Amino acid sequence: MQTFIEDLITKNNYQATHLLAVLRAVQTQYHHIPKAAIEQIATLFLIPRTQIIGVIEFYSFFHLTPRGQYELLISDSITDHMLGKHEMTAYIEQKLNVKLGEVRTDGLVSFDNTSCTGLCDQGPAALINGYALPHLTHAKIDQMADLINQQLPVSDWPKVLFDVKDNVIKSSLLLAHPIQPGEALHTAFKRGLKETLKEIDMSGLRGRGGAGFKTATKWQYCSEEKTDEHIVVCNADEGEPGTFKDRVLLNAYAHHVFEGMTLCAAIIGAKKGFLYLRGEYLHLYDQLNAILADRLKLGLLGQHILGADVDFDIEICLGAGAYICGEESALIESLEGKMGIPRNRPPYPVTQGYLGKPTVVNNVETFMAAAKIAVNGGEWFAAMGTEKSKGTKILSICGDCDNPGIYEVAFGASIQSILDDCGAKDVLGIQIGGPSGTFISNTELARKIAFEDLATGGSFIIFNNTRNILDIVNNFTHFFAHESCGFCTPCRVGTSLLKNQLDKIVNGHGSAGDVVALEELCQLVKTQSHCGLGQTAANPILTTLERYPELYQAKLKKISYEPGFDLDAALETARRMANRDDAATHLTQVEEG
């Protein structure tokens, strides 16, 4: 172990910012992070051992106690539930002789849940030692069980078990007519970098992660910071259940993404870039590094790119299972080898980002769009979309439809038109933007995908009328309670209280006043939390409570009343009460009466 870790630290140039990479290697080698390894890493990196332990406990893919030689994680996303996750879980337990959440007695295999694998269109899905296993079936599980019991290394397993499809079904501005490697840079250098930034500004391109900040403005702000070093970061940590578009873009359009990052670097004067790759996308890591090596050979990375006075290199950093790292400041903390706890803002990354340097953080789709705009011009992009939402949006569509996959639609497209495209029938509702987004009912299908109406990072989950809305909300609420980083009390405690209060109601133990208390708790978590996770964690409850209050009320305990008791009058009194506490107290008295 001592030699192994010394080699690791040397390979990572004794830089504590590479702590996650070192811990991932140790976890892979020993199936946990041994105490002796922590002591040695702390000594060689010159950082406190408590800092290392904090990082290990923060990320779900790191463990202080031994896991199996084969660590199997099954996705607990709502889409996997819909595709038979519970049945597959029971079958895995039977075939591998291991219970969910446990390590088999011989230490060979461990089995547990993971929040989402990014394979929502190909579930039920799992990870084996970090590698994606789509479309679990009884036959696949039988084959896996045999391979595990033979102790055959995962690297020698049949490739068909790991066959992840792109499922690109509808293409438009970005996905149709791919550009050639270097084409955007050639065009931008010929046109001029300042003029190219004006084209991106003219295009109206806004960040595709959901927040929608104007891309050209962000790049301009960062370029104006007077410092010797700027940084470019691509956020490829799409942890929102129901989102998988970045997985497809990095698999099929990686050159476009790296081209967009390099274009940004040329414009803002950056020499260093990072692609922060979601830990669940380990299967993309080697091929992305190979593409970077190809670009270096082509003169598209490294020194004097295409003969210009531009030097730029990109490093791929793997996450370790933390949804919160999709938030840009938490991602930067993680890049620095720390727990992914969101920073107080201001300052913003464009002034003080990675290691305090001015940093542009954009997501995969945004960088790809910038590269294509550099080639085709701002007017080409702005000609599609709406007044405030130019261009197209790439959607990850899954759930109850005939053709789940990737759809590129013009901003302003109606929900109904999207449902028609993917073959969705008998629709109950759609979750737009993942659990942190908005649940809309089948009465709202004329609404539009646009920043003016329904903004989304790309997640589009369809539910038909066979689904139970409270089951969906329960899954999302448990997700947020699990993924809270624990930094602030309103989120750390509040998400757990939301989970418990919702469980109480869903399981039929709620009584008068419990729904009111649930809504009050939602507002507290929403308004008092430190970052976007807590601020949106109550959305699944609030958006469904607004549309289906009767479903929550129907779960409350049924009570009987003495003859002559006027229930309608008592409830009307409660409705007229302006003070929620008074209303809740009165309703409780009504129940007791």
Task: Report on this structure.
The strands form 3 sheets. Strands 6-12-11-15-13-14 form a 6-stranded mixed sheet. The chain has a 5-stranded mixed sheet with strand order 2-3-1-4-5, with helices on one face. A 4-stranded parallel sheet has the order 9-8-7-10, with helices on both faces. The protein has 593 residues and is an alpha/beta fold. The protein has 25 helices and 15 strands. The chain folds into 5 domains: 2-58, no CATH class; 70-165, 3-Layer(aba) Sandwich (Glutaredoxin), CATH 3.40.30; 169-382, Rossmann fold; 392-467, Ubiquitin-like (UB roll), CATH 3.10.20.600; 470-558, NADH-ubiquinone oxidoreductase 51kDa subunit, iron-sulphur binding domain (de novo design (two linked rop proteins)), CATH 1.20.1440.230. It is globular and about 90 Å long.
Outline:
It contains 25 helices and 15 strands.
How many DSSP-defined strands? 15
Unreliable stretches: none
Based on secondary structure, the structural category is alpha/beta
Distance between the termini: 69 Å
* Biggest beta sheet summary: 6 strands, mixed
Helix content bin: 40-55%
Strand content: 5-15%
The CATH superfamily of the largest domain is known as NADH-ubiquinone oxidoreductase 51kDa subunit
Give the class-level CATH name of the largest domain.
Answer: Alpha Beta
Give the count of structural domains: 5
Q: And the CATH topology of the largest domain? A: Rossmann fold
> If you compute it from the alpha carbons, what radius of gyration comes out, rounded to the nearest whole angstrom?
25 Å
* Approximate shape: globular
Number of helices: 25
Mean pLDDT: 94
CATH-derived architecture of the largest domain: 3-Layer(aba) Sandwich
Strand order of the largest sheet: 6-12-11-15-13-14
